[in-house]
Amino acid sequence: MPGPRGNEGEKMSIRPVKRLVAAKPTVEGAGVHLRRAFGFGNTSDFDPFLLLDDFRNDVPEDYLAGFPWHPHRGIETITYVLAGTVEHGDSMGNHGEIASGDVQWMTAGSGIIHQEMPKGDHAGRMHGFQLWANLPASLKMTDPRYQEVKAPEIPEIKDDDGTHVRVVCGNFWGKSGPVDGIAAEPIYLDVSVPPGRRKTLPVGTTRHAFAYVFAGSGKFCNASEPLAVPTEAVGWLDTAPPIAADNRSLVLFDRGDEVVVQAGEEGIRFLLVSGKPLEEPVAWYGPIVMNTQEQLQQAFKDLEKGTFLKRHK
Question: What is the mean pLDDT of the segment spanning 95-103?
Fold first, then answer.
């Protein structure tokens, strides 16, 4: 496999860590307890991404109420399941189930009404992520669509040092993820680095990028010095005791063209996500994201009048 550092002689720059934050507990839907890594407020540093939720739970009463019927317009939602399942249905008549290792990429476009109902595995455990990506103004009112990807369809790369990468979306180390046609051209990776290993991962210079650590621990290296990123150990992925309980770490990177991580004693597993910033105005309330307040108000008027769902050819 070609090395991740590019051509010999090229000078690469390490992306400094711009911000390190712990995901915050919140309750969404009909009473689902989850952690929000970022979302709402000013999300310009994450543009084109708007929100990342970590719904990790082993108490069924804290998630079974799920996310009953609700609208979306102007965004794309990406659901990635690691344990348990999520049953879904929508206003276009689609229904199905996302299981462990599967991904659902929903383009809400002009509007969709759907529900998502998490179910635990045989031990009652539920774990997954939902990421929201903004749509550019030119595609806010595009036709809704789904891309459902089963676990075996997601390319997996294992490097010589044991680093393991699942390529959910985008191109990485010569492999292309199965999700395509996404406006922000995101790269969405699930990365595992073995204990004690130092790994360099390429990220395009003009892209906004973040990592979300959800197992093990490690240090993301600045040009000057490493920054430690402890996280809560995950019982069914990692048998080590918690390093820092209730601390799930989001790492926002500054400009550069590579990310360097030093894995801790238990290794480290994280999402690495990047995308091209849209640099457009954002008018956002709940599950609807438009460019102007007028468009946002129109969306809620459409909901009230029963004209939210558009007829497409």
Answer: 92
